[in-house]
Design goal:
The complex is a heterodimer.
Chain A (H helix, E strand, L loop, with lengths): L1 H20 L2 E7 L5 H14 L3 E7 L2 H13 L6 E4 L4 H6 L7 H6 L9 H4 L3 E2 L2 E2 L2 E2 L1 E2 L2 E6 H7 L10 H11 L7 E4 L4 H11 L17 H15 L6 H6 L2 H5 L5 E7 L3 H5 L5 E4 L9 E3 L3 E4 L6 H11 L2 H10 L3 E2 L5 H6 L7 H5 L4 E3 L8 H14 L5 H18 L2
Parallel strand pairs in A: 1-2, 1-3, 9-10, 12-15
Antiparallel strand pairs in A: 3-13, 4-5, 6-13, 7-14, 8-10, 8-11
Helix pairs in contact in A: 2-15, 9-10, 18-19
Chain B lengths: L1 H40 L2 E2 L7 E2 L3 H8 L1 H34 L4 H13 L2 H11 L6 H8 L14 H26 L3 H9 L4 H29 L3 H6 L11 H11 L3 H29 L4
Antiparallel strand pairs in B: 1-2
Classes of the chains: A alpha/beta, B mainly alpha.
């Protein structure tokens, strides 16, 4: 009996010693499972240099990510390192739960100047860097070459205007084959925001007290987008509500063209159709939303220093190089985008990198995004025919403004 | 005899405490403390990311005038008023039929009960596909009969009914099981006596079966109303409260206030208002049962 206890004790000791090799264990929360393989490689590389730190990757799907993060933070169990986006940064940073990483970047030899200014400032406050963009993304017009060839329509190019898009959509729509020419999605970042901006409109007034899309160029842009649904050139809202246009209808060959983010390029390149990408068509001007996800660190974690070290590592040139080679997203580090383009040889992915030149930063404000959620709900109603367009515009303006007022 | 029983009691009382202890602890931790905390939070402004600040009755007053919360209250009441009577009636009728089937009773029971054991979220996800306007199975069936398709989840007058339809079909297994148990408890002598008096089948159901299962009906109505007031899963998965807020339920509003807009104070206040409503409705039912529930 004694022997057995002794054995048990020694076993426990050896276990804890083995555990000691990973003395500091940290979690890394992300929302995109597509990027998992690339990030696992980064973690392996980091752990090779820092054998005393163990990083556990946790994927929480986008739909639940912010819910889970809020609950976990309130419960004192947030991820040690996690993905942050533009609209949520002001909320999290104003609550003082993110670690100032300025010093950690310096220690790791990260040159902040090598990152696009518009995106660095998205995650900075009072001159301090709370995170650096791990990547950047723009929006492009993806098209299914097979469907274009079948309908004998010329591929989109950088001279395309909104009229060209409409004409092509008409030529490509084939109700008998169950094919729509274009998916006029109700999504914001990949959808209507870009159209409003391309038409010379703006989303919010300069003082952020009013939504500006129900009038003038914004309204025209929404009307243009909605016309695709009205004329049967795009699936309607109800159809797209339960069958996703970006991940199901377009790669499934039911839709010939769609506006989608650069983060979809790699996935589309493996679709069973020949898919390519062109710049978004022009209206009064050309515009795309640019955004980049940042790695941030929770400032109440047990192994905060290890977490900061990992976050800083992710922003080093070495790590960014690995991101570029994986082709999963465009690395934010200057000069590395060419490698990302080279990793997707079947597409003209360069247009998505070049789009950064005419890009507009992702809207972000301390007022949160409720105004946008309110608009999204009304747009969904217009798109599925529950609310007529003009009535919808009145509603959208009232609901959006009320949300902005409330957030003051 | 009396003394041994007393001895047994004294000795085992501690054992009993020991056995219920863990669950009491669990309930305290995950239910009662959380309950008290949410009551406290309802009088504060709290984003979950910072420390709460006292707000007095602000959250309650705002909930009472907020049009979206008002709309969600109306929708929830309508949902309760439609789904509970339909659900109880449908499961009663099915239970009667199943009760009358002489063979394979347990097979049928399993057949109807199985859907109830499936994860509601999984069911809702599948039904969302089935309801799809262009690719869904319901419209495909309608089209084969040359009928026009219905926009199940996308049109204002239909969406709430689609949710009711979903809830009734996927939830009736539970009601059927409870009714079958109730039907089994009815003494055969009543039926024999009725037969002797020459009562028709319908009269037997109306005069004997229904009055004698009123305790079961009462139980189901009370519990169904409570859970119908808290309808959330199918709405979150299938409609997100749309179109035009026509399926927005109170629970959905609570969820959105808290987890989308970081207003946990408002969310808690609405939750307590919902609690008060459910309490009141249940109290009225408990009081009213004297008038119509017959215990054998």
């Amino acid at each position: 009996m004694k022997k057995r206890i002794a054995l048990l004790v020694s076993l426990m000791i050896s276990l804890s010693v083995a555990g000691g090799a990973f003395a500091q264990s940290i979690t890394y929360g992300i929302w995109d499972a597509n990027q998992r393989p690339a990030l696992e490689k980064l973690i392996t590389a980091f752990q090779a240099d820092n054998p005393s730190i163990k990083v556990t990757l946790q994927v929480v799907p986008w739909a639940d990510y912010w819910t889970k993060l809020t609950a976990a933070t309130a419960g004192g169990q947030a991820f040690d390192v996690f993905w942050m986006n533009g609209p949520n940064f002001p909320v999290y940073s104003s609550k003082g739960i993110l670690r100032d990483l300025t010093g950690d970047f310096k220690k790791a030899g990260v040159d902040v100047a090598m990152y696009p200014k518009a995106l660095v400032s998205l995650y900075a406050k009072d001159g301090k860097n709370y995170g650096l963009p791990k990547d950047f993304d723009t929006i492009g017009l993806y098209y299914n070459k097979d469907l274009f060839d079948k309908a004998k329509v010329a591929y989109p190019n950088d001279s395309w205007t909104w009229d060209d898009l409409k004409k092509a959509a008409k030529a490509l729509t084939d109700p008998k084959a169950g094919v729509w020419g274009f998916a006029a999605i109700t999504g914001d970042q990949a959808g209507w925001w870009n159209f409003v901006l391309a038409n010379g409109g703006q989303l919010l007034s300069a003082d952020q007290t009013k939504v500006m899309v129900a009038q003038g160029p914004g309204r025209e842009a929404l009307k243009y987008l909605y016309s695709f649904v009205q004329e049967g050139l795009s699936p309607d809202g109800s159809t797209m509500a339960s069958v996703e246009p970006e991940t199901q209808l377009f790669p499934g060959g039911k839709v010939a063209m769609i506006t989608a983010g650069s983060w979809m390029a790699k996935t589309y390149s493996t679709a069973p159709f020949k898919i390519d990408v062109a710049p978004l068509p022009k209206a009064k001007t050309r515009a795309t939303i640019i955004h980049g996800v940042a790695n941030v660190v929770w400032n109440k974690g047990k192994n905060q220093d290890a977490a900061a070290k990992f976050a800083a590592f992710l922003s080093t040139k070495k790590a960014q190089q690995m991101v570029a080679e994986s082709g999963s997203v465009i690395p934010a580090y200057q000069g590395l985008a060419t490698q990302w383009v080279a990793s997707i040889p079947s597409m003209h992915a360069q247009v998505l990198v070049d789009a950064a030149q005419y890009a507009v930063p992702y809207p972000s404000s301390v007022k949160g995004m409720e105004w946008n959620d309110q608009i999204a709900a009304v747009l969904a109603d217009i798109w599925n025919g529950a609310t007529p367009f003009d009535e919808g515009m009145t509603k959208l303006e009232a609901a959006g403004n009320a949300a902005l007022k409330r957030a003051q | 005899m009396g003394t041994t029983l007393q001895k047994w009691r004294k000795k085992d009382v501690w054992r009993a405490y020991f056995l219920v202890g863990p669950s009491i602890l669990g309930l305290l931790l995950f239910f009662y403390i959380a309950l008290g905390f949410s009551f406290f939070i309802s009088f504060t402004h709290w984003s979950a990311l910072d420390t709460p600040t006292f707000a007095g009755l602000d959250n309650y007053l705002r909930a009472l005038v907020d049009p979206q919360i008002g709309q969600s209250l109306v929708n929830t009441l309508v949902y309760v008023a439609i789904s509970v009577p339909i659900g109880v009636t449908v499961s009663f009728v099915y239970a009667l039929i199943l009760h009358a089937i002489p063979r394979f009773k347990s097979t049928f029971r399993l057949f109807f009960f199985l859907p109830f054991l499936t994860l509601p979220v999984a069911l809702a996800l599948v039904w969302k596909w089935m309801f799809n306007k262009s690719f869904g199975v319901f419209n495909t069936v309608l089209h084969t009969f040359n009928l026009p398709g219905i926009d199940w989840l996308g049109s204002r007058g239909v969406a709430l009914w689609s949710i009711v339809f979903f809830s009734v079909v996927t939830g009736m297994g539970y009601g059927i099981i409870i009714f079958l148990a109730g039907l089994k408890n009815i003494t055969q002598e009543y039926y024999d006596a009725a037969k002797m008096d020459g009562a028709s089948g319908f009269t037997v159901i109306r005069r004997i079966t229904v009055p004698l299962v009123t305790p079961t009906i009462f139980f189901l109505v009370v519990t169904d109303i409570i859970s119908a007031f808290q309808v959330f899963d199918p709405i979150y998965i299938m409609t997100k409260g749309g179109p035009a807020d026509s399926t927005r339920s109170i629970m959905f509003s609570i969820y959105q206030e808290g987890f989308t807009y970081y207003r946990f104070g408002d969310a808690s206040a609405v939750a307590w208002i919902l609690f008060a409503i459910i309490m009141a409705v249940t109290a009225v039912q408990l009081y009213g049962q004297k008038k119509w529930v017959h215990y054998e």
